[in-house]
Amino acid sequence: MSDLRFKAVEEAMARKAVHVDIPAQRPETYYGSLVFNRQKMFEYLPKHTYDALVKAIDMKEPLPRDLADSVAAGMKRWAIDNGARHYTHWFHPLTDGTAEKHDAFIEHDGKGGVVEEFNGKLLVQQEPDASSFPNGGIRNTFEARGYSAWDISSPAFILDQTLCIPTIFISYTGESLDYKTPLLRALNAVDRAGTKVAQLFDPEVKHVCSYLGWEQEYFLVDEALFAARPDLVLTGRTLMGHESAKNQQLEDHYFGSIPKRVEAFMLDLEIEAHRLGIPAKTRHNEVAPNQFELAPVFEEANLANDHNLLLMSLMTEVGRRHNFRVLFHEKPFAGINGSGKHNNWSLGTDTGTLLFAPGKTPAENLQFVTFVANTMAAVHRHNGLLKASIASATNAHRLGANEAPPAIISVFAGRQLSDLFTHIVNGDDTLDFAGKEGVKIGVHQIPEIMVDNTDRNRTSPFAFTGNRFEFRAVGSSANCASALIALNAAVADQLETFYGKVQKRLAAGEELNHAILAEVREILIESQNIHFDGNGYSDEWKEEAARRGLDCETSVPKIFDAYLRPESVEMFSRTGVFSSVELEARNEVKWEMYTKKVQIESRVLGDLALNHVLPVATRYQSLLVDNLVKLRTLFPGEQGKHISAGDLDSIEHMAEHMTEIRNEVEKMTQARKEANRIKSEREKAIAYHDNVVPCMETIRYHIDKLELMVDNEMWPLPKYRELLFIR
Ligand code: ADP
Ligand code: MG
User: Fold this and answer.
1) Which of 151, 178, 205 lies at the terminal end of a domain, its last residue?
2) Within 6 Å (CB) of ligand 1, which residues are found?
3) Whose atoms come closest to the Cα of 348: which ligand?
4) Which residues lie near ion ligand 2 (Cβ < 5 Å)?
5) How far apart are CA 406 and CA 398, in angstroms?
6) What is the model's pTM?
7) Mutual orientation of helices 645-676 and 580-608 as an angle, nearest 10°?
């Protein structure tokens, strides 16, 4: 009998909701209390420092050097007033999550004691050892220094008595070693290009900003049950486990009432999030049992992404207080919906226009159609790249499963927008433009566009949802920056091209609105293959997409190739987002990460199969053999055969599964050995994908069969029905 499993189940069942200290005040009084926001800057900085810092932030300029000491002094005072003892640069290396290196404020005071010190130099720049982070060969160990440098557009905050300073992380020679650097570059690119295009409609526009509203899905598993599953502990997902008799077929979990224990966790999390200035707003149950979602109010993309990463750390920490483990893995349980992180993405001007929101006047709507069409064109041209931006070893289990977006990128537009496209595409040149007041662009629908936000197509990886696009293929564990870098850069590049073409038409004497509409028509026609409103899960779509020339690759290591195709390299170079050296280095990291993740899973599975499952199965089988022999002794001859036929059957079936498991583990180990000898990271990742992953699937299949045969009392690992239903 497996004591560990039963103890864990007992412990989990007995658990009660943890008490949460609810602040006496309303959220607006403690919201952002741990953030060095403008209000704190105003309070703690000399007036001229405050003015210059705010100006630099607004103008997207670097912090003037001579102000660093003054800002640092104010920030330190605020941090110490709020209980901080350490400070750290907080950055996003190319691993999952964030990195920190804490230093105490203390320095020698020269009299045998210490003083708490923090100056401009420490605020602005640190030099963490870059060779210990993934760098794809950019960092040689003899030149191991990397820089982290303050990103003034994201405010410092206090987490666990530590002042955290959001920073970029770059190599000594200037290449990015993180997600934030290229994200900021991509946001600048879309700002530059978007502003030019937006100025065609409104000369007052000075900046275009990219917004992000993420929806974070996750699973909760009780701590004790988690600890009894080595696969969850080491890989974040269950590598085996037969479906529970009840899972999500009754659809009774989605938006259902939230279990008390979970509610307490969510409340605690929200309070902490609000203190850190994360505008957490929506929480609900998701489709699968034990699956939940948290969504904030959308924000400027760089800040929103910092907030997402911060929230993920916070969730893990708060979860522990409530005896939960938070699973961010995209597919922790086979046969049950996976977790994504929908990226609601939009562009807006500094004059307050949301560029994907249809307006009231024809002019506003021409602008709306322009930005939508350019986005479609960018997604069309770079559909393979966008898929690469969300591809990972873990997300591979979710994409293409029958609940998540398919592994082909297409754009869902919805009925009204599709009608509008058709109208524009079919329109002829007799469109009537009547000066500034009444721009009759022949598209009568435009002034009345009421795009129905409920027109949802859950099967689309990239959907227009009323005033934004929702990139749904992003995985729950991902750093959103990866998707946002590719998307904003591609759209920026497309907007530049568009702008150039419109300028040409203007130079040739065309009227502005006419020139714009003519170009919009061109790009709608060019990119119509990306537009698909049908069922993305169907097999017909896969065939159709291939005919349309969309990227249908499903092997993750090969999907990554899209980053190195000439059209991607050129696009990234034109927009100044990545150099080809950076792209190559980052792909090395991607392939290496893929290999490592599969390698770890494969080792854990091999261990579980040989050392947990097979011994138990053998023990149970030997009980059956024992019984069989005894029955046959008691009832010799034909009668005995008849009575013991069931046992014989089970013994044989078990033996078959056990043999398969043994052989397949052997084959998998061999495949790993061979793959490990390959020098090229790309080829190695492909070998892992082609030769190791299939063995893992076969092994799992046979283990899951055994789970149904072996005495429940003996089975060593908590089963899905135990892991998945929090009371
Ligand atoms: P649903 O699950 O129906 O898609 P949610 O309310 O869970 O919607 O999440 C929608 C997310 O989209 C929220 O984070 C919201 O702030 C964000 N959002 C809404 N409008 C925009 C916009 N124009 N740009 C970016 N994000 C937006
Ligand atoms: Mg959504």
Assistant:
1) 178
2) 211, 213, 215, 282, 295-298, 344-346, 354, 467-468
3) 1
4) 342
5) 9
6) 0.94
7) 150
